[in-house]
Structure formats: C-alpha cells, structure tokens
Write a structure and sequence with these properties.
single chain, 151 residues, mainly alpha, elongated
C-alpha cells in the first residue's frame, strides 16, 4: 500500500487507472484482513462461515487481476532504459521515472505474492468451512437417522 501511495504522491500529471486499482486492492485487502484476523481468532466475530470464504475468494481474484493487469501494462524492461521509462505511461508520470519504475515492478511482485497467499488462505478456508459444519452444498437427501415421518 505504501509503494502505491508513494507512486500516487510523486505523480505530477495524474495516474493511470491501474495504479488506482492497485491502491483499491491494497485498501480492500487491509480492511478485509481486519475482519479475517478477528474472525479467525474468535469465532464469535464470524458473522457467517461463508463470509470468510467469500472474502478470501474476492481478494484472490482482485490480486490475480491486479497482477496480470500491472504486468501487462509494465511490459517489464530495465528501469535504467530511459526510452522505456519515457514511453511507458505508468512510469512516465513522475520526475524520477526510474524510481517509479522500480516501485511499479515491486508492486507487481507484491500483487503476485498476495495472490498466492490469498489462494492458500482460500484453500484453508474452504477446508475449514467443509469440516466446521457449514454446508455449502445445495439441498440434497439426508441419509441415515430417523426422518420426521418416523418420529
């Protein structure tokens, strides 16, 4: 979040939409982590077991989309190449284009790391919601035990 914030701060002619999207992803992730940490530590904070799974899924998708979009826009080249930093609309928004280029590449790496972290968290949330009594499947016939007509 700090890298993207610094990129936004150093811009002199506005920012491309992908930079604003990266800031949205960082803020949404931070806000959802406040809930996820509290709900993991104390089950009383978990409003519904499906909510933790849904937040992990949303964050996983947001980080994946951000990583793909930023990597595609950067077309990763050397930040020391002045022609590249001048022609790229992400790096050409600051007085220090090489610094902005390095920050954008670092943000891209953090987006991919965040994607992997949330994907792992999504797997664990899915396993916990299946074993924790939350039935995520629709309907179905109950097998075993007496039914209401037998009572």
């Amino acid at each position: 979040m700090a890298l993207v914030g610094n990129m936004i701060h150093d811009a002199f002619s506005g920012n491309p939409s992908i930079i604003n999207y990266c800031m949205f992803v960082a803020v949404f992730s931070m806000l959802s982590l406040f809930y996820l940490f509290a709900a993991t530590a104390n089950e009383g904070f978990a409003i519904h077991p499906f909510l933790m799974l849904a937040l992990d899924l949303i964050n996983t998708l947001l980080f994946l989309i951000g990583g793909i979009a930023l990597a595609a826009e950067l077309r990763v080249h050397s930040c020391g190449n002045d022609d590249y930093t001048r022609s790229n609309h992400i790096t050409n928004g600051s007085l220090n284009r090489a610094k902005r280029c390095h920050e954008a590449q670092a943000v891209c790496a953090f987006l991919w790391f965040g994607f992997l972290a949330y994907a792992g968290s999504l797997v664990f949330s899915g396993l916990a919601s299946r074993g924790g009594g939350a039935n995520l499947r629709s309907g179905g016939i109950r097998r075993g035990g007496p039914t209401m007509s037998q009572v």
